[in-house]
Amino acid sequence: PSNVHNLILGSNVKALADAEACAEHLGYRVLNLGSYIEGETRHIATMHAGIVRSILAQGVPVAPPVCLLSGGETTVTLAPNPGKGGRNQEFVLAALLKLGMTPNVAILSGGTDGEDGPTDSAGAIADAGTLERAAALGLDGGDYLQRNDAYHFFEATSDLFITGLTQTNVMDVRVLLIGHPS
């Protein structure tokens, strides 16, 4: 009907644009991969980790400090008898394990609705300190990843990203901050 007007208040594109503006204000160069990233979460995490390694090693495609952004929604193929978690927690754990103890890199992935899988967490935030805490606790991140149990890994390391329900959903936002190499 002609009396119906649609107004888009938010979108994944807008969320990424706002994150880009904030990162630039903080002095980061921004590499925004867009809001259509989809596929198997672990593969997408491996790709993001590869871009981070390229930035740190060669300054390609852009020299640090860099804020790498991406949006969209990935998928997780569950193992038999999976643990607890969601695609954002799994993304952070898979990327963290690929990057290892790389200094000056922080990873965040979160659902804009405040939920990730059947959990109270929107996702997770991690850096090399996460792996240090995991090692001190005797946790094997690879084992947690194989069991799709990222929630319990990040719960133990205190790196869950808990926002509460946001009353909106514009898909997922991933932020990887890359500082100057040590």
Structure, described:
- With 182 residues, the protein is an alpha+beta fold.
- It is 37% helix and 17% strand.
- A six-stranded mixed sheet has the order 1-2-6-3-4-5, sandwiched between helices.
- 40% of the residues are buried.
- The mean pLDDT is 96.
Strand runs, count? 6
Give the N-terminus to C-terminus distance in angstroms: 61 Å
- Radius of gyration over C-alpha positions, nearest whole angstrom: 17 Å
Strand content: 15-25%
- Mean residue pLDDT: 96
Low-confidence stretches: none
Q: What's the story with the biggest beta sheet?
A: 6 strands, mixed
Query: Which structural class do you get from the secondary structure elements?
Result: alpha+beta
User: SSE order, as H and E?
Assistant: HEHEHEEHHHEE
User: How many helical stretches?
Assistant: 6
Short summary:
This protein has helices at residues 12-25, 41-58, 87-99, 128-136, 141-146, 150-157, and strands at residues 29-32, 66-72, 105-111, 123-126, 160-161, 172-178. The termini are far apart.
Task: Produce the secondary structure layout.
Blueprint: H1 12-25, E1 29-32, H2 41-58, E2 66-72, H3 87-99, E3 105-111, E4 123-126, H4 128-136, H5 141-146, H6 150-157, E5 160-161, E6 172-178
Parallel strand pairs: 1-2
Antiparallel strand pairs: 2-6, 3-4, 3-6, 4-5
Helix pairs in contact: 2-3, 4-6
